[in-house]
Write a structure and sequence with these properties.
Spore Coat Polysaccharide Biosynthesis Protein SpsA, Chain A, six-stranded mixed β-sheet, globular
């Protein structure tokens, strides 16, 4: 499998919720800790965090990087994840996706080895609908989005 890292994006403004979604408790622990636990079992070269307040996340002991272009929303976070990733491929997940499926993430990562690939972007489809998270169309946590992104000839 080509080099793969996971980036957890935690840089939102919390404008709808009014507080940082990363630290909302679910079953007694912050949502971001559920995400870290899920991606920690994946066979990846590195796990990194994209967040503009690194001190808030220091206890997670993950390499943390700020947005390259602050204030640009989810797409800016994805760009920052790919920019800071040490690997050719980056699987990007949100900090507020506590029900991630490690089986689905493993399957998506396995697609990097397919003869038809390598793919530039892999997006799951559920009932014929791409599961892409955007600030204007948030998906329920039971259908989170995941991207594996390989920047075109930039690395």
């Amino acid at each position: 499998m080509p080099g793969l890292s996971v980036a957890i994006v935690a840089g939102g403004r919390s404008s709808r919720m009014g507080r940082d979604k990363s630290f909302v408790l679910l079953h007694g622990k912050p949502m971001i800790e559920h995400v870290v636990a899920c991606v920690s079992v994946l066979p990846v070269e590195s796990i990194l965090l994209i967040a503009n307040r690194p001190d808030d996340y220091a206890y997670l002991r993950l390499p943390t990087y700020p947005d390259v272009f602050p204030g640009k929303g989810a797409l800016g976070g994805i760009f920052s994840a790919v920019h800071h990733s040490p690997c050719e491929y980056t699987l990007v997940v949100g900090c507020d996706m506590p029900y991630l499926s490690d089986a689905l993430l493993r399957y998506m990562a396995s697609l990097l080895d397919e003869r038809a690939g390598p793919y530039d972007v892999i997006v799951p489809v559920h009932d014929g609908h791409p599961q892409v998270y955007t600030p204007s169309t948030a998906r329920p946590a039971s259908h989170p989005s995941r991207l594996i992104w390989r920047p075109a000839a930039s690395k």
